[in-house]
Amino acid sequence: MNDINNLALAYVGDAIYEVYIRKFLVKKGIVKVNDLQKEATKFVSAKGQVRVLNELMDNEILTEEELDIVRRGRNTKGHRAPKNTDISTYRYSTGFEALIGYLYYNNIERLDYIMSLVLEG
Fold first, then answer.
1. How far apart are CA 114 and CA 32, in angstroms?
2. Contact at 8 Å (CB) between 109 and 83?
3. 14 carries an active-site annotation
């Protein structure tokens, strides 16, 4: 699955990450949809994703290969940041999503491990 382009990996990674987050929040016992949405935004917003990515990098959790995926996703052309996010944050969040997509296709056990760290914190 190494032949998937970075934006496609980010596209899939965004969906996979959101499923992990939603599953986590429902397991926590949150039942009101508005509360679920508010809590999910803390994780799935571009700023939330960059916060998570920075924690993973600061704690040296990611391998060189994973950091390379993040860099490639971050540097991919075609970024258009939404109104509420600056381009730098948006690019890093795209790199994070590309990593999640890459791990989903290539190493689900590693994805589960990283997501367990994300959700513990």
1. 27
2. no
3. yes
| 59 Rama sector, left if φ>0, alpha if ψ -120 to 50, beta otherwise | alpha
Q: Please enumerate, as own/partner, the contacts of 103-110 that have beta carbons within 8 Å and a separation of 24 or more.
A: 103/66, 104/12, 104/13, 104/16, 105/1, 105/4, 105/9, 105/12, 106/1, 106/2
Mean pLDDT by 10 residues, the chain (121 residues): 84 96 93 91 92 96 97 82 82 96 98 95 65
CATH of span 6-120 = 1.10.1520.10
Alpha-carbon separation of residue 53 from 16, 28, 62, 91 (angstroms): 16, 23, 9, 12
Which one from 3, 14, 86, 112 is the annotated catalytic residue? Answer: 14
Which residue ranges make up each domain of the chain?
6-120
Query: Does residue 95 contact residue 67 with C-beta atoms inside 8 Å?
Result: no
Query: What's the pTM?
Result: 0.91
